[in-house]
């Protein structure tokens, strides 16, 4: 149950990040602000936090088991399993995609 609660907190944190680092710059652009600041870290972290939070909320303990190695494998390969690296890599790539989209959306409004 603690893992599902942690997932819910990650989702809420991801929504807050998304509001400040993705929604707010686009909203400022639509209102014609003179300058707009963006954060690549915020735009990349938002999908990563959301993906991990959704996984933890839906699958709970099973999610952490799937993305982590057993103690025996952890000694040899590290704590994160192959599936865990794939999940993190996919989330990170989606984060870079969000940042690329954000920059292009702001360019369409005449910024950058």
Task: Explain what this protein looks like in three dimensions.
- This protein has 112 residues and is mainly alpha-helical.
- The chain has one domain (2-108).
- Helix content is 80%, strand content 0%.
- It contains 5 helices and no strands.
- The chain has helices at 2-30, 40-59, 61-67, 71-77, 82-108.
- The model has no long low-confidence stretch (mean pLDDT 93).
Give descriptors for this structure.
112 residues; mainly alpha; 5 helices
Briefly summarize what is shown:
Helix content is 80%, strand content 0%. By secondary structure, the protein is an all-alpha fold. It starts with a helix and ends with a helix.
The class by helix and strand makeup works out as mainly alpha
The main sheet comes to: none
Task: State the end-to-end CA separation.
Answer: 45 Å
Q: Any idea how many domains?
A: 1
The SSE string, one letter per element, is HHHHH
Task: Average the pLDDT over all residues and give the rounded result.
Answer: 93
Provide the low-confidence segments as ranges.
Answer: none
Q: Tally the helices.
A: 5
Helix content: over 70%
User: What is the beta-strand fraction?
Assistant: under 5%
Number of strands: 0
Write the layout of secondary structure elements.
Layout: H1 2-30, H2 40-59, H3 61-67, H4 71-77, H5 82-108
């Amino acid at each position: 149950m603690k893992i599902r609660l942690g997932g819910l907190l990650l989702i809420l944190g991801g929504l807050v990040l998304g509001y400040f680092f993705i929604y707010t710059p686009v909203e400022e652009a639509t209102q014609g602000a003179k300058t707009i600041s963006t954060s690549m870290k915020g735009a990349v972290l938002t999908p990563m936090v959301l993906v991990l939070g959704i996984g933890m909320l839906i699958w709970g303990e099973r999610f952490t088991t799937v993305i982590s190695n057993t103690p025996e494998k952890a000694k040899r390969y590290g704590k994160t399993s192959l599936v865990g690296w794939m999940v993190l890599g996919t989330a990170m790539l989606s984060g870079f995609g969000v940042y690329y989209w954000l920059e292009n959306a702001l360019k369409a409004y005449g910024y950058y």
